[in-house]
Structure formats: C-alpha cells, structure tokens
Amino acid sequence: MRITWTLPEELVPYELMALRDEGYDVSEVEARWAAAGGPLAVPVEGASVPGDPALRELALELLDTVPAPVTPPLAVEPEPPSGARAGHGRLLGAWTGRAVGCVLGKPVEKIPRRGIREILGATGRWPLTGYFTAEGLPPEVAERWPWNRRSAVDSLAENIDGTPEDDDLNFALLALRLLEARGHDLTSADVAQAWLDWLPAGRVFTAERVAYRNLLLGLTPPETALRHNPFREWIGAQIRTDAYGWATPGRPRAAAALAYRDAVVSHAGDGVTGAMWVAAMTATAVVASTVDEVLDAGEAVLPDGPFAAAVREARALAGDWEAVVDAVEKRHGHLHWVHARNNAALVAAALAHSGGDFDRGSARW
C-alpha cells in the first residue's frame, strides 16, 4: 500500500513547482534538495511521483522553511436574496450535464491530449460524438494509452449502466447536503466538519487529502489549506462548487461567496479563485439566455491576476478549435494537468466556442 499526496518527500517537488509559478526564487531550496538526491522535476501529466522515505526529515524541514501561502479575504459582496428561480428543466440539465461530462472523461483521466486523439482516431470516433469505447481499439494503442483502471469497468460506452460514484460528483452532493443542513450562512468550519462526518479520507485526493490530514492534526480553516499543501492552486475546489450556483440562481456573487468559504478549507490563490468563478457561472447558467452572460458573470467575481488574465485571454481566442487548444497549451503547458488556471482557460475557450450548445462544448478536447 502506498498513501499518496501527503508524504513530505513526495510533496517537495510539487511545492517547488508551485513556488516557481508564484514567482518565488527557490534556487537555494532546490540546491539542498538536489544535493540530498531529491528529484526536482514532476510530470505535468500522469499520476503522482513516489518519494524516497530516506529524505523525509529533510523534506519536512524544507516544507517548513519555504514561503507560506496566504488566503486573501473575500472581496465579493453577495447580492441580497431575490425572487429569481431556476426552472426544473434547467436544474435537471445542469446536474445531468455534470454527470455526463464526468462519465465521459473518466476512462481517459491522466491521458494527455495526444493520447485521447489517438484513441478516438483508432476507434473511428474523431471528432468526439459520444462516450469512449474499447471496441475496435488496436492492442498497441491500448497498451500505449491504458484506460484509467478504476473507470474502464463502468465508464465506456459498452458498459455504462448509470452514473458511477466519483469524487467530483460526491462533492456536488455534499454541497447540497451542507446547504440543506446549514443554509446560505454556512461557514468554512461547517464544510470541514462535513468532510469529517460524511466523506471518507480515501475518496479525496491532492489538496483535499492534505487538508483532511491537517484537520486530523487539529488545524482549522483556512490553515488547513496552507500547511504543506503544494496542491493549493490545483483544480479540486474548482470542481466542487457547482451546486452553490444552482442554489443561488441569478446571484453570482452570492454563489461565489459560498464557494469561497468552501474552497479555503483546502485551497489558496488560483484554487480559490477558480471555485468562485465556477459558482458564479453556474448561478447564471440556470437563468441566463446566452453563454456570454455566463462568462461575463464569472469574470465579474475575479480579482485581477493571472487567473483572470488566463480566462479572458482564452475566451478571446478565435479560429479552428485545434488551433485554440494549441494556443492554450503553449501558454499554460508548464502547469500540472490539474492546475486550476490551465483548466479554467480551456473551459472558458470551450464555452466561448460552444455558442451555448452542450454537445459542441462538452466535446472540446
């Protein structure tokens, strides 16, 4: 058994990557780590990198000495309650679309774009028009790009039977349960307690697993997101705040405020900003007439910074979709594949190119 995402010797290379992206000079820390035999590079795609337990003591020392991240205060003033309501069809569509997108991507999680393209081309499904399939996939392609082993059994076209359990969907349901139990005044402490009460530690990953560990060590939010957490600006919070928007139709700032309180349990910086962005957009999507209204609402809650710039730049990209993705990859390819900023850029570009058509938007790879 290997417990990933929390071991100090595993975290150091990711922390160095995070600090470099945040603009820090990490040369001295890198030199000490490298001199002891620690790896400096981590892959921007694929699974986590095991560390050497012999380096644990040094890893703890280095993690304690690097610059500490901070959580800025919420800078969005929620709208007062209004009479806006989302129709049943809109909400059903939001949840169904969330589930469809989740199942669609599960078999190819961790597979890079070139691998996805090769799989689809080899099975006659490029451009993407439906779920992935193993039928007709040449053995050499399957060996080169193996399916996600946990998802291939229930998320391919030939074996889908409903929506399988997934951590992404678990968080949407958890947010709904929180809202039912605590209402719109829920706090970060409420979110943290809900994790301990209702969420198995083995079903959370990266930043969420670090935050869970920190909760068990006795820390409280937002400190749970800040101690030894190099995944603080990854996508975890960004993918768990949809329901806050669905529950506040037409009130994007109120949704963003709820998302902020949730996100700071495990994230900082772009990780929190991304959560607010998604919640503001989902609050608008259930009442809006155009996708531009949705994107505008998301941008309106963003503080100035790299995340806002990435979203606006990606939204403005025009032309052939493949060229758009090339541009996003060129701009953000140095980031890990589950960083919040590169994923948000791709989402913004896909929404802008979709013109509001779900099939067109969800098939953007």
Automatic annotation (TrEMBL):
SUPFAM superfamilies: ADP-ribosylglycohydrolase. This is ADP-ribosylglycohydrolase. Gene3D superfamilies: ADP-ribosylation/Crystallin J1. Pfam families: ADP_ribosyl_GH (PF03747).
